[in-house]
Design goal:
Mean pLDDT: 87
Number of strands: 2
Low-confidence stretches: none
Shape: elongated
Strand order of the largest sheet: 1-2
Largest sheet: 2 strands, antiparallel
Order of helices and strands: HEEH
Number of helices: 2
Strand content: 5-15%
Structural class: alpha+beta
Helix content: 25-40%
């Protein structure tokens, strides 16, 4: 994920109370790929992105809810 996606992931993790530190894979290259770690220290951190994803999925076990959603219906213009 890039820096903007990382910011969004960090926001979701915080709102759901899920532990994890979102940081660049290479601390010297903030424009590169990012991931989720157990701690901010690059020397001792362990990637926990899969665990964080599983925790988010556990909050929403049924997936997308069936039924109506909000949106617009645009009728065809042929006619």
């Amino acid at each position: 994920m890039n820096a903007e996606q990382a910011r969004q992931v960090d926001t979701v993790l915080r709102r759901l109370g899920i532990a994890g530190v979102v940081a660049p894979r290479d601390p010297e290259n903030t424009a590169g790929d990012w991931s989720v770690y157990d701690t901010a220290d690059p020397a001792t951190r362990r990637e926990v992105a899969a665990d964080a994803l599983a925790s988010v999925a556990a909050v929403f076990p049924e997936g997308p809810r069936p039924g109506p959603t909000r949106g617009f219906v645009v009728p065809p213009t042929d006619g």
